[in-house]
Amino acid sequence: MEPTPELSPHHAYPDHWEADVVLRDGGTARIRPITTDDAERLVSFYEQVSDESKYYRFFAPYPRLSDRDVHRFTHHDYVDRVGLAVTIGGEFIGTVRFDRINEQGRPASAPADEAEVAFLVQDAHQGRGVASALLEHIAAVARERGIRRFAAEVLPANNKMIKVFRDAGYTQQRSFEDGSVHLTLDLEPTEKSLAVQRGREQRAEARSVQRLLAPGSVAVIGTGRTPGGVGRTVLRNLLAAGFTGRTYAVNRAFDEGLATLDGVPAHRSLGEIDERVDLAVIAVPAHRVPEAVADCGEHGVQGLVVLSAGYAERGSAGRELQRELVRQARSYGMRIIGPNAFGIINTAESVRLNASLAPESPARGRIGLFTQSGAIGIALLSGLHRRGAGLSSFISAGNRADVSGNDFLQYSFEDQDTDVALLYLESLGNPRKFTRLARRTAAVKPVVVVKGARHSGTNPPGHAVPVSRIPDATVSALMRQAGVIRVDTVTEMVDAGLLLAGQPLPAGPRVAILGNSESLGLLTYDACLAEGLRPRPPRDLTTAASPQDFRDALAEALADGTCDAVIVTAIPWVGENGEAETGDGEVLAAALRGAAAGGPAKPVAVVHVEIGGLAEALAAASSTAAPRTRPTTLAGRPAAAPGAPTGAAPPTATAPTEPGTEAPAETAGTAGTAGTAGTAGTAGTAGTAEPAEPEAAEPPARPGRIPAYPAAERAVRAMAEAVKYAQWRRQAATPGKVPEFLDETTDGPGAAALIDTLLGPAPDPRGRPLTHDEARELLGRYGIPVRPTLPAPDPEAAVAAAARLGYPVALKTTAPHLRHRADLGGVRLDLTDEDALRRAYAEVTELLGKPAELLPVVQSMAPRGVDTVVRASIDAAAGAVLSFGLAGAPSELLGDTAHRLVPATDRDAAELIRSIKAAPVLFGWRGSAPVDTPALEELLLRLSRLVDDHPEVVSVALEPVVVAPQGLTVLGATVRLAPPPPRGDLGPRRLPNY
C-alpha cells in the first residue's frame, strides 16, 4: 500500500525551499511551501482572481473552491504532490503546484519522473514576473524529487501563458490535442535557461536599487523636534540638495498641532500621509525599528534606508535582531539599505537625492560609489570633492543585511549615468555571483574595488558570509580574471576612478613623459618601469617652459603614433630673484586642456608640485561634473563611454527589445489542466538571455577633465591600472573557448560512475582521499595519465618493482613529512641497475628511518624538464579554483602561484602559466630549452573540465608535473572526493540570508 501523505517519510516541511525573491518591478516577495494552515489564505486569494484567469485555469467557469478543493490544495506530501505560494505581507499573490503522473497521466509515485504543473497569479500582480520566479523554484523542487519533465495543458487563446513556458529556456515539445495545447518541458537546466534566469535576475535587482535611488517621495522617520540628531540632519540634507520629490517628517512624538517642520509636512505616522511614500529613512532607536518597519509595510513603502545602529555589530543578539529586521521588511516586499547605514545619494538632475548624513551633496558626475563603511564613505566623498570629481550615485550599506555590492553592480551595469563603479567592500556575501556580475559589468565600464579586512581572517562586525580558505592573493587574481581593478587603498581607488571617468583607455603600455623638471620626469620614468609600462625617455621642457610650450609638447606627444598615453609633470616656475613662483595654474590648465581636446583620444595625467590652482582648474571642466549625451551608432545604440579602448566599443548596457525580452507592461495568463483540480497560475513574460553584443560604436567623446596627482607614483599606478584594464577589455571582446577535443577524449559518464562507486551509497560528508591507483583511474578518464608507482617495503620489493617498470628508475619516500621534499634526501634519481637501487635504498633508510616510516616507492624515470605543480580545489566561498606554479621551496616561499576560476578557457590556461614570476624558466631562460607549454595548457584544461563536470572532486594536486621540451609527465597525484557542496549560483533566483 502506498503511504498516505500523513505517513510519508518525506512529509516533513522542507524549509530549504523557502526563498525571498526580487520581482521584475524591484519589489520583493517570499516563496514557500503551502501548508495545511493556509486554507483561509488560499480561499481569500482565489476570491481575488478574475473569472477570466479562473477560466484559463480550469477550462470552464469555476467561481469558487469547494472544501474538497481547499483540502487538496493545502495538503501535500512534498514528494509526489507539491504546492508553492508567493506571499507579500503574509497573503498569497500566486501559487503553483505539481502532481506526479505516470505515462497514462494518472497520479503516481516514484520512479515516475513526470508531473503535471499548474499556476495561478492574482490579476493585480500579473506582469511582475511572479510566475517566472515560481517556475524556476518549482522546477528546482521537482528535480530534487526525481522529476525530469513537466506537462501542462493550456488553452490556445492563453498566449501569455504559452509564452511563459516558451521563454523559460527549457527544452520543450508542443502539440495540439482535444482543443488545448499540450506542453512538455524537460527540466534539466540548459545554457539558455540559465541565461534567461540570470537576465531576469539582473533586471530585477537593478530595478530594486533604482527604486531606492530615485523615489518620488521620502519620509524621514525619527525626525527630531529640535535641530540636531540623525533624523533632523537627514531632513536638512534632503532639503539642501533640492530633492525633486515630496518630503515628509515623521515622528510619533510630534505635537498634534504641528503641521510643518523645516517647511515640510510633519506627521506622527505614515498613515496620516495622503499618498504612498516610496522611500523611508529610519532614524529611530533599534528597539523602535520594528514598529516603524510595520508602519511602512502596511502603507506601501517600497524601500528602507535604516540608519539605526545596534544590530549585528553588537554581537549575536544584535545579529538575530538584524535577521528579523530583514525578514520583516521582505515580508512586505521592501528592500533595505543598512542597518547602521550612512545613507544614499543620487545626483541626477531629475532626482537630486541626498538621504544621507553627508553634510554636502557631491557634484553631479559619472562615478558610482558603494561602500560598506560609513567612515570610509565620508573619506571618499571628501576626497572626491576636494579633487573636483562628481558622483552619479552613492550607497553606504552599513551592515549590508540586504542590499549588497552585487546589487550595486547590477544597478551600475544598467545605469546610463554611471561610467565607473567604485566599491569599498569588507566582505563578499556571494563571491561566485560577484565574479560573474563584475565580469559582465567590467565588459561595459570599469569596476574598481578596495577589499578591506583582507588579512584578519574574520568578517567585519555585522557581516555573516561564507568563510573562504583561499589567501588574499588568490582573491585578487580571481578579481583580475573577472576584469576587476583591484587596488589596495581608498586613495588608489580615487586615483584610478578619476582617470577612468575622465579619460579614454590607453591602446597600449607606451607612455610619453614631458615636463619642466628633469628630476620629476626621471621619477615618473622609474615609476613606469616599476609598474610594467613602457615609458619613452622623459622630455625636459626646462624650468623656463611657458604654458604654450606645454601645450605644444603635449599636442606633439598625443599625435605621436608610438605612444599610447601621456604623463605631464609640472613644478612651479623659478623667478628672476630665485624664488619659486606658483604661476597661474588656470593658464597652464587651459593650455593642457586645449592640447588634449585637439589631439587623438589618448589618456593624459598630470603630476604637479605646489602649482596653485592647477588641480582645481583641470577639474573645472570635469566630464564627471556634468551630464553628457553619448553618441549613438547607426543602429541607435549608445556608443562607448569615455574609458572605452580606442577603436573598439564595449558592449552596451542596454539592448533594444528583441523577441523573448521581458516587457514591463506585459501581463501573463494562466495555465491549467482540464479536469484536474489544483491551484493554477498566471505567469509573467519570460526574460531573455544576456544582452547582445553591440555593433561598432563611434569613438568616445573628447574628455574634458585631466586628473592631477601630487606624486608621480600615484599617477603612474592609476595609468598602469588603466592599461591592464584596457588590455582585459580587448581580450574580453573575443573570449576564450574550451577546445572541442576535450569532448572527444574525456569519459564523463565513466568518471561519474567511478565516483559514485568510490563514494558509496552513504558517503562520509567529510569525504575521502583516493589511493594512488584510484586516483590514476579517475584522472585517466579525462586523459591525464599518471606514471605508475610500485610500493617498495623492502629492498627485494624495490628490485622486483624496478624489473617490472624497467630501468632507469627513481626511489622516493612518500611519508607525509617527506613528500615532495627532495632537499631532505628522500629521493634518488637515475638508478640504472639493481646495484645502484640497493645502494640507494640502504642510504635512504639509514639516513631517514625505517621503511615502514618512509613508505618508499619505485617509479620509472621521466624525461628531464621543469618541475611544476598543478592544483584544483573547491573553496566554499569562491568556488572551483585552478592553480599553477613551479615546484620547490622558492616558489612556495614567495607565493609565486597563479589562479583562475573554473571552468578555464584556452586563454585562461595560456595566461595561467605566463602570469607567475618564474614563467621565463618555461620559455628558455638563460639559454635553456623551452618546454612544451601547449601540453601544459592542455593538462590545465583537462583538470579544469574534470572538476567542473564532477563537483564531488573537491581537490586535486598533480605534483610534480615534469614538463619536457616534448610532452610532460605527471609523477604524483592526490585526489579527494566528497559529497558535492551546494551551488547556490546554479539554483533558482533567491536573495541571500546573512
Structure description:
By secondary structure, this protein is α/β, with parallel strands linked by helices. Helix 8 (289-298) packs parallel to helix 9 (316-331) and helix 17 (585-598) crosses helix 18.
Number of strands: 43
Q: Approximately how much beta-strand content do the residues carry?
A: 15-25%
Structural class: alpha/beta
The radius of gyration computed from the alpha-carbon positions, rounded to a whole number of angstroms, is: 32 Å
Low-confidence stretches: 1-9, 621-703
Number of H/I helices: 28
Terminal Cα span:
44 Å
What would the keywords be for this entry?
994 residues; eight-stranded mixed beta sheet; 28 helices; 43 strands; disordered N terminus
Summarize the structure.
The protein is α/β, with parallel strands linked by helices. Helix content is 32%, strand content 21%. It has 28 helices and 43 strands.
Question: How are the secondary structure elements laid out?
Answer:
Blueprint: E1 19-22, E2 28-33, H1 39-47, H2 51-58, H3 67-74, E3 81-88, E4 91-101, E5 114-121, H4 130-144, E6 149-154, H5 159-167, E7 172-177, E8 180-186, H6 191-213, E9 217-221, H7 230-241, E10 246-250, E11 260-261, E12 264-267, E13 279-282, H8 289-298, E14 303-306, H9 316-331, E15 335-337, E16 343-346, E17 353-356, E18 364-371, H10 374-386, E19 391-396, H11 405-414, E20 420-425, H12 431-442, E21 447-451, H13 472-481, E22 485-487, H14 490-502, E23 510-515, H15 518-530, E24 534-535, E25 539-540, H16 547-559, E26 565-570, E27 573-574, E28 580-581, H17 585-598, E29 604-608, H18 614-620, E30 670-671, E31 681-682, E32 708-709, H19 712-732, H20 741-744, H21 748-759, E33 768-769, H22 772-780, E34 789-791, H23 795-805, E35 809-813, E36 827-831, H24 834-848, H25 851-854, E37 856-860, E38 866-875, E39 879-886, H26 889-894, E40 897-901, H27 906-914, H28 933-949, E41 953-963, E42 968-970, E43 973-977
